[in-house]
Amino acid sequence: MPPKQRITREMILERSFEMFCREGMDVVNARSVAKALNCSTQPIFSYFSGMEDLKNALVQKARDTFAEALHDGMHADEPVVRLGCAYVCFAAEQPRLFIHLFAAAGEDARYPFSGEEERSDLIAREAAHTGMAQDQARTVFEQVFIYAHGMAAMCATGKLRYAPEEAEKQIAAAHALAVGAVRGAQA
Helices marked H in the chain — which ranges? Predict the structure, then answer.
């Protein structure tokens, strides 16, 4: 009977994810992961078909982490403001993950809001919250999302730092401006 593996798939994922969060995806390779786990590369390739398989699992874990960070914002009374705040806070707290998910080549910068299905509930709740029509709420969402993305990118790259309260104040102000502009355009 072969010896029992002392390194598990979960250990490999966790250590790789720590490396990804701390230093970025570029440092995640078989040798660096094996060194961090104090083992050979064999356990990595016994659980993953290759490094691309491991990196895909890490990207999925990053997306899950992002979804958890946005969960409360997605279900708040002020959905666009709360979501924008959660987005900026995620970028500040997890800059490497944010950059990989939203600024790296090949990734859709609008994830998870790229498709109509992903936005429809959020836009419907924004319309209900503001008393606007769906198309108006969509415009507000898009304008605030662009603003929040800029704030988040500056936080992730270390250009700016916002305390959560300040981020909320800025996003709320952008939201108020967008709502005012959309309502003014309809008058």
Answer: 9-23, 30-37, 42-47, 51-74, 79-93, 95-102, 116-130, 134-156, 164-186
Interatomic CA distance for residues 143 and 128, integer angstroms:
18
Per DSSP, the three-state class of 27 is: helix
Q: What is the pTM of this model?
A: 0.86
Contact status, residue 112 vs residue 172, Cβ threshold 8 Å: no
Task: Please list, residue by residue across 88-125, b when 16 or more beta carbons sit within 10 angstroms of its beta carbon and e when fewer do.
Answer: bbbbbebbbbbbbbbbeeeeeeeeebeeeeebeebbeb
Overall fold of domain 9-48 = Arc Repressor Mutant, subunit A (1.10.10)
Q: Residue 106: helix, strand or coil by DSSP?
A: coil
pLDDT at 74: 66
Q: Could you give the dihedral angle defined by the CA atoms of residues 24, 62, 30 and 45, in that order, rounded to the nearest 10 degrees?
A: -170
Is the pLDDT at 109 greater than 60? The verdict is: no
For tokens 């994810």, name the residue: 17
